[in-house]
Write a structure and sequence with these properties.
Blueprint: E1 4-5, H1 8-30, E2 35-41, H2 45-60, E3 64-70, H3 76-87, E4 94-97, H4 107-113, H5 125-132, H6 141-154, E5 161-165, H7 172-181, E6 185-189, H8 196-201, E7 205-208, E8 226-229, E9 233-238, E10 241-245, H9 250-256, E11 259-260, H10 267-286
Parallel strand pairs: 1-11, 2-3, 2-4, 5-6, 5-7, 7-8, 8-11
Antiparallel strand pairs: 9-10
Bound molecules: NADPH dihydro-nicotinamide-adenine-dinucleotide phosphate (NDP), 5,10-Methenyltetrahydrofolate and magnesium ion.
Residues 49-50, 96-99, 121, 141-142, 232, 244, 263-265, 268-269, 271-272 line the site of 5,10-Methenyltetrahydrofolate (GUE).
């Protein structure tokens, strides 16, 4: 079998189109322009790439983009002051503080200082608790993007066995909550999991978010399973070049899987599209307007 390629890049373009439509309506009918503020501390080159493309796509969707680039030596108090200013700015509907933060900062403290209503990453403890109890919340962008692709491919996810590899607060855990919410039987595997290959081989849906280049190989995959590869790993490609690979070995997994997301062009573009979607959702909620359908979990 050769897997169907789930084209995250194309899917993301359709999500951004929907977002742009809602933005246009908010402007015309209500005179409101959604605004997204992205805060980057330090000069990590990969983070700079993401922040640039977020800003560009925010503008393309018709929204206002505010970028705050702070030096690596910024103190936690200075960063908290920026967050507080954005919390109080009515033009700003979404706030994203790019992770990881420099080591001298407590990222939990910073994230929990963001107004939960503006927390478009869905990382604030209030949003985590709301998601875990099945209440309306801001849903983390990467898992939301994965869920949209899974629903699109499968229709219903009810009763399917899902294995999430990785238990981070930003991907693995919220992904597991969303899959549970859609009535999957969910297993979370991590670095201490025994017989991880056998567990992954039991899955109808595999979501890999480990940060280990090409760790999951085709022999781990049940024939016909759906493979969602969250990993973004830049590795040496020889001759002084680098390339981007996922946490799954694409060629071997694609031979066995029923469907698979590529890297690049899979989960990554959906993450940014969902960030824009969350910003529109936050803007509608802030203004007491009905929120867009099909852009939330
Ligand atoms: N496409 C996108 O939009 C995004 C992509 N990413 C990418 O996704 C990947 C994961 O990111 P993130 O969740 O932040 O990573 P973290 O490093 O925070 O978490 C990695 C998880 O993988 C587990 N793990 C590590 N090694 C193994 C192993 N050998 N076997 C089984 N489990 C293992 C860890 O287990 P333990 O807890 O036991 O240590 C941990 O739970 C990265 O490649 C990252 O770049 C991240 C965010 C967004
Ligand atoms: N507060 C916070 N929220 C995040 O959502 C967040 C973060 N911090 N820190 C870093 C990770 C990583 N992340 C990605 C987003 C898009 C792509 C993406 O668009 N990737 C392209 C390729 C990009 C390239 O070529 O480098 C693709 O997969 O096709 C990747 C990774 C969001 N993250
Ligand atoms: Mg994310």
């Amino acid at each position: 079998m050769t897997a169907k390629v789930i084209d995250g890049k194309a899917f993301a373009a359709t999500v951004r189109e929907k977002v742009a439509g809602h933005v246009a309506r908010l402007k015309e009918e209500h005179g409101i322009t959604p605004g997204l503020a992205v805060v980057l501390v330090g000069e990590d080159p990969a983070s700079q790439v993401y922040v640039r493309s977020k800003g560009k796509q925010t503008i393309e969707a018709g929204m206002n983009s505010y970028e705050y680039k702070l030096p690596a030596e910024t103190t936690e108090d200075e960063l908290l002051a920026v967050v507080e200013k954005l919390n109080n700015d009515p033009q700003v509907h979404g706030i994203l503080v790019q992770l990881p933060l420099p080591n001298h900062m407590n990222s939990d403290l910073v994230i929990n200082a963001i107004d939960p209503a503006k927390d478009v990453d869905g990382f604030h403890i209030s949003n985590v608790g709301l998601l875990g109890t099945g209440q309306k919340s801001m849903v983390p962008c990467t898992p939301l993007g994965c869920l949209m692709m899974l629903r699109d491919h499968h229709g219903s996810l009810s009763g399917l066995n899902a294995v999430v590899v990785g238990r981070s607060n930003i991907v693995g855990k919220p992904m597991a909550q969303l899959l549970l919410g859609d009535s999957c039987t969910v297993t979370i595997a991590h670095s201490r999991t025994k017989n991880i290959q056998d567990i992954v081989r039991s899955a109808d849906i595999v979501v890999a978010a480990v940060g280990r280049p090409e760790m999951v190989t085709g022999d781990w995959i049940k024939p016909g399973a759906t493979v969602i590869d969250v990993g973004i790993n830049r590795i040496d490609a020889g001759e002084g070049k680098t390339k981007l690979v996922g946490d799954c070995e694409y060629s071997s997994c694609a031979e066995v899987a029923g469907a698979i997301t590529p890297v690049p062009g899979g989960v990554g573009p959906m993450t940014i599209a969902c960030l824009l979607a969350n910003t529109v959702t936050a803007c509608c909620r802030a203004n007491g307007l009905p929120e867009p359908k099909g852009l939330t979990a």
